[in-house]
Amino acid sequence: MAVLSKSFEDWISWRSCNELVHPHSCRKAAFQNFFRFISSNSKYYLPLLLIHLGKHGFRSGAVDLDLLVESLWYYAQLVFGGVVEASLITWSICSLRNYLGKFHPSTLLFVPSALGGAFCAFFPKKVKHVQQTAIFQSVIENLMLLNHPLCRLLSTSVGLQAAIFMVCSAVILEGKQRKWYNGFWFLIPDPAPDKDTCDKKSCSHSESDCGLYIVRGIRNYLMYGLALDIFKALVSCTKSGQWDLKHFKLQSTAWLGCYVGIYRAVHCYLRRSPAIKDSLRHPLAGFLGGFSYLFYPKLTILSYALLEASRTLWAKRQGSEKKRYGYSDIIFPFAMAYLVQSYVMKEPTG
Predict the structure, then answer these.
(1) In terms of domains, do 65 and 171 share one?
(2) At what angle do helices 149-156 and 158-177 cross, to 10 degrees?
């Protein structure tokens, strides 16, 4: 760290914005960056627009004018939020350099990123949730890749990752069934059994036959997984410029199909097992369903599971109390600043 600090003082701190950040004046760079950020954020959030249209259009059976206007407004809010944050960060870098007379290790990236991230607290709830999810998930994944013995063990041990994912799966599905937290998860849990009818029917699903219920779930989630794999293949081919079948892999298809199959089969079986307490049946089904992680072991999925499990437990602790601002609004600017700083100012190894 001392070597990195001395290198910063010798090679970076004394430079001007024109040498380090942009070739033009700060005002001209801010103007150019504004339009550049509009273009980049429009491309970045375009998949969310398509997912929003597909999700709600699939539920209603059609994409009407109201849904299109709502989706475009949501998309515009996402792009606006991204542009404002990026513009505040770049403007703060130049302003702090001009005010302090030189760059400092903290004012080059960390403080400007925190100032830009602080604006996220004023975004609409859905936009803020998307922004916070992306940053918090990336921070968790970045921490898992640190050069620490425990982090190296986690990043290299698929079995340990699967065990953690299984616990997260149990927490998230239980929380969604009990309506503690309503965030996105890859699997929709079985509805909670009605106390008035639980003695008349073992399972809470609408199908009369558990086998049919399991097969339909596998069929539906195989289709969801296939759509994800096709989408990922299209994105990969577009980025590489090579349209090749090697980009198409059925990883999401296999994972989601196994996930719902194990979860529903175990839950239906346990609902008929008097040896297991009723309060443990659903968490156990969610736990064993998480074994499907072995079909698609990705740290990105694990980091998202850890984030959603934490949110679920926090929502349970809060209960029905809803606040416009919370601890996440305080943590987010520092999380963004840490992420930007860690990606750009990496200490040399070896």
Answers:
(1) no
(2) 80
Looking up tokens 């809803």 gives 322
Burial 5-27 (b: 16+ CB within 10 A, else e): eeeeeeebbeeebeeebbeeebe
The pTM (predicted TM-score) of the whole model is 0.85
Flag whether pLDDT at 257 surpasses 90. yes
Residues 133 and 58 in one domain: yes
The two three-digit tokens of residue 32, written as one number = 């150019």
Contacts (Cβ under 8 Å, ≥6 apart) of 199: none
Cα angle 311, 305, 202; round to 5: 85
Tell me if 345 is assigned to some domain.
no
Q: Are 19 and 98 in a shared domain?
A: yes
Interatomic CA distance for residues 149 and 153, integer angstroms: 6
Q: Using only the alpha carbons of the chain, give its radius of gyration.
A: 24
> Is the domain of 163 the same as that of 106?
no
Question: Could you tell me which residue, 16 or 48, shows the higher pLDDT?
Answer: 48
Distance CA 204, CA 209 (A): 11
The pair of three-digit structure tokens given for residue 207, joined into one six-digit string:
């199908």
